[in-house]
Amino acid sequence: MGHTSLEKLIRLQKKTSNIRNICILAHVDHGKTTLADCLVASNGIISTRLAGKMRYLDSREDEQIRGITMKSSAISLHFTSGESEYLINLIDSPGHVDFSSEVSTAVRLCDGAIVVVDAVEGVCPQTQAVLRQAWLENIRPVLVINKIDRLIVELKLSPQEAYTHLQKILEQVNAVTGALFTSKVLEERAVKEAELEGAVPEGEVPELSGGEQVYDWSAGLEETDDSHLYFSPDQGNVVFASAFDSWGFSIHQFAQIYCQKMGIRSEVLQKTLWGDFYINPKAKKIMKGAQSKGKKPLFVQLVLDNIWSLYDAVVTRRDKEKVEKIVASLGLKVMARDLRHSDPKVLLSAICSQWLPLSQAVLSMVCERLPSPSEMSAERVEKLMSVGTRRFDSLPEKTQQLKQALLAVCGESLAEAVASWVMCFFPCRPLTQEELAQRRELARQRHAERQATSQIAEDPDSASAGGAQTATPTNNTNTGKEHAVSLSVKPAEEEEEKKEHFIAFARVYSGVVRRGQRVFVLGPKYDPALTLRTLPEGCSADDTVPSVPHLACCTLEHLYMLMGRELEELEEVPAGNVLGIAGMEDFILKSATVSTSPACPPFTPLNFEATPIVRVAIEPKHPSEMPKLVRGMRLLNQADPCAEVLIQETGEHVLVTAGEVHLQRCLDDLRERFAKIEISASKPIIPFRETIIRPPKVDMVNEDLGRQQKVAVIHQAKEEQSKYHEGPQVDSGGLVNLTTPNKMATIGVRAVPLPEEATRLLEGSAELIRTMEQFSLFAREGKTLEISQKTLEQIQEFRTRLEGHLQGWKWRNAVERIWAFGPRRCGPNILLNGVEGYQRPSVWQCLEGEKEKPEAATLRDFDNSIVNGFQLATLSGPMCEEPLMGVCFSVESWEMKLAPQFTQQDSSESGGSNEAEASSSSAGGQSRWRGDVTDCYGPFSGQLIAAMKEACRHAFQAKPQRLMAAMYTCEIMATAEVLGRVYGVLSKREGRVLNEEMKEGTDMFIIRAVLPVAESFGFADEMRKRTSGLASPQLVFSHWEVISSDPFWVPTTEEEYLHFGEKADSANQALKYMNAVRKRKGLYVEEKIVEHAEKQRTLGKNK
């Protein structure tokens, strides 16, 4: 197919039913970009000879060097199928786990996906992840099984063995899809049952829910049709391919070929070419039961045998006569220079690209099996519009009416232009007039060469011209052609200071976007209900709009069609298309929704698979360039959806990324593109957490700890206390009593470890806790916060589950007594109110609907001081100033002894002093509460905060302390011969293998392990070096895990002295991590530089 003109593509943009928005998803190195090259070559944008080698959509220099995709790229392609013409907006996404945020953004923009699976490796971890992302966004996938040539050349399988292997791969992919489908159906079933239980009278409930769970489960799955979900070649949603050799086919193509030769209808062949069918030559009929009768299946006989014989003739034996016969029988024309070429792959590609063109097979499958934008489901629209925990039916009426505008994509009835800014920005360097003129001349030359050169006979000059085309400097990536960005020539100094240009990556969901149009930009936290009450009726973006939170107005300066490494300027873009927009960087941070109606809600945020965990502190080499670094980091934050930029309390500028490769890309971008200065990055800042555990029952040599040692420890603690008379009083149960410096208040605090399940629940429910805290804040200020019914149900479920995890006499009524969560009021630590007689509003008041009583407020003058002290204590623990995790602090006594002068002064002002007395639960004295204390922000409040913080720290230190390390899950695919080396690298880096299983039909093993993030830097490189590239790990942040060793441990028993020696100088991993963090933060580290120093003596003179 020749080069398609821009006018034709613009014309096709208006036919919504003939548009296909698709992305290519796969595990790393499964052949996405090579496949994209073949599709791009079909439009004449690159030479077919360079397809698979050029990697056209990998436009960054580091992508070409590393050989992996790091940034999603989009291109618009034209495809003709019969009499219909289609516009295909193709997005190539990365496969590396560090860049899974790019996959999330690509999936949001599309209606369909091409999932690529390596025929040798099969379903890998990232394959499962991309299938899950496609499922969550309600987009339909099709399957391409790539690298089938490896089955012939590398594994040397026979056609029958290859057929069995391909069947297993299909089963693996369908198993992932089936698991996703089952979980969805069971979830919906549970919701329906919950609704039924609420509606059915009490007497009938046992009949519905009594002992029939298995039947209900199967019935729920049987009622739902799932036939369209699975991949099957006879359904036309599977293509078998070798992108590197430029061939691919679907069952439909071979059915068309053989229906004429065999005289069997095409529909029959399409149903029987894949499956347990064989042909009976005597009866000339297709029969079932090939496996039981030992016959060759049709797929092997009619398809694979032919491909295997072609590879045998061309690649293995290089039989010229047989090749000429094959070429003649297929009716192909192969150039003489291809027949004479020393590399057999060149001849193979020349034959296969004509016989089974990959682009034809894949694009025809895309057009037939994937939906157009006009076929978007109502379920997907509602899911897009339901922000956070809000249901669609709880949105304002005007907002709900927009659903019809989104479903009727092609209409302009409401003239709504809604675009979801997903992969918000990619940088674009503007061209000067000289560069534009130079590119214009090059374009003219290339066009003239294409006209002069025929498609069949290409002379060497044209080939070198094609090479010149690929040699375009990579630093011009993502820049426009002659229309793209034209700027007047400026002096060099001014040009350097000119800000970086960004192109926003967007999708139009309804209406028509026009250049120069005024639109509303809706931030992720925008609330349409609040705005509709504020703004006048019929307000548009052209009017003067009053200030509304998370709402801005802007003009769409330039619209672009994304063409890989080029941009084409457009005047308008109809609904259903993907486009680029210039001039939005001042209004959007990472992602936003754009609409001409303020009633439009912001679209739901993206589901990111990877969590940013790797931190580095960044500073400029020359301090005077700090403003450039700050600006560069702001631009990087906009350009990368997963990177986070923050300033720590210490003043350090910190960059948070998803992994080592992602970190390297961000640092390169900062140096070369955004800041354009020399920067120095610290060693990765490893996050840790501090926690406490129950006292261990055995010592370090697994000996049972007797009571004698415990008593010794308590005596030791008392001796230490006696040295400091003003210090905290610690009793044998771990209760810490601390008095403020002015002797006006005494607090008693005890620390208890939370159960592991409760900690995980608190960690995963941060958003709900934040909502509860916001409700309490509004209640204190006398305001009301509207919370949707769905959120209230989730909070109720959270409360029930927390009660289930906190069982036993120690946790009696603990959930009711929760005072606060921390740190930052939503963390995985709890503050309990254990003071008898002290009543305060519950943190669950959003569920109970109770109003704050006025007398309760007077009793709580210093309540916030206690909470703030707890927040400070949990934000930085005593071990190495890292946040606490899984710790419960219980305030068991709180005594107030007020100075007489304050009491007299207050009584004279208020006409009397109201005091409430509360008995302390453990101190045995009387706690006195004054109702008229109003100095809750004075010096005494500060002393109370400091006392609470210190009491929490001492209570924490009274228990066995442990560090918690961030852990990666590590999935490694390796062959049997390098398994030993893989285990060696893992054990050296404190890794722990969870399981190991062999992939059926291959000699590959899948090893699943956990690895501390602290030990992960350089892990992938070392693994590749030690295994000669035969094993490559995928690291994804998983959880926090307690390091078993005590960082403060010293040998105390006789057995420990015998085992570890007097100095116990064997490596203590927890101590090593703790000291490293303390050194980085400038805290005191107890270590001896010289120990047992001796005078050096020589052999010659023994002095």
Q: What do you see in this structure?
A:
- It is built from 37 helices and 37 strands.
- It is globular, with a radius of gyration of 34 Å.
- It has 6 domains: 1-189 and 228-246 and 357-374, 3-Layer(aba) Sandwich (Rossmann fold), CATH 3.40.50; 252-356, Alpha-Beta Complex (Yeast translation eEF2 (G' domain)); 378-429 and 499-595, Elongation Factor Tu (Ef-tu), domain 3 (Beta Barrel); 614-685, 2-Layer Sandwich (Alpha-Beta Plaits), CATH 3.30.70; 689-719 and 727-848 and 863-897 and 941-960, Ribosomal Protein S5, domain 2 (2-Layer Sandwich); 963-1045, Alpha-Beta Plaits (2-Layer Sandwich), CATH 3.30.70.240.
- The strands form 8 sheets. Strands 10, 11, 12, 14, 15, 16, 17, 19 and 20 form a 9-stranded antiparallel beta sheet that branches. Strands 2-3-1-4-5-6-7 form a 7-stranded mixed beta sheet, sandwiched between helices.
- α2 packs across α16 and α23 packs across α24.
- It is of the alpha+beta class.
Lay out the secondary structure.
Blueprint: H1 6-13, E1 19-26, H2 32-41, H3 61-66, E2 73-81, E3 84-92, H4 100-109, E4 112-118, H5 125-136, E5 140-146, H6 149-153, H7 159-199, H8 205-209, H9 213-223, E6 238-242, E7 247-249, H10 251-262, H11 266-272, E8 277-280, E9 285-288, H12 298-316, H13 320-330, H14 336-340, H15 344-355, H16 358-369, H17 378-385, H18 397-407, E10 418-420, E11 425-428, H19 433-452, H20 460-470, H21 492-497, E12 501-510, E13 512-514, E14 518-522, H22 528-534, E15 551-555, E16 558-563, E17 566-570, E18 572-574, E19 578-582, E20 593-595, E21 614-620, H23 626-639, E22 644-647, E23 653-657, H24 660-674, E24 679-681, E25 688-692, H25 707-723, E26 729-730, E27 736-739, E28 745-753, H26 756-764, H27 766-780, H28 789-805, E29 818-822, E30 829-833, H29 845-848, H30 854-859, H31 863-875, E31 887-896, H32 900-910, E32 915-919, E33 926-930, H33 939-957, E34 961-975, H34 979-988, E35 992-998, E36 1004-1012, H35 1019-1026, E37 1032-1042, H36 1054-1060, H37 1069-1081
Parallel strand pairs: 1-3, 1-4, 4-5, 5-6, 30-31
Antiparallel strand pairs: 2-3, 6-7, 8-9, 10-12, 10-20, 11-12, 12-19, 13-18, 14-15, 14-20, 16-17, 16-19, 21-23, 21-24, 22-23, 25-34, 26-27, 27-28, 28-31, 29-30, 32-33, 34-36, 34-37, 35-36
Helix pairs in contact: 2-16, 5-7, 7-12, 10-11, 12-15, 23-24, 26-28, 31-33
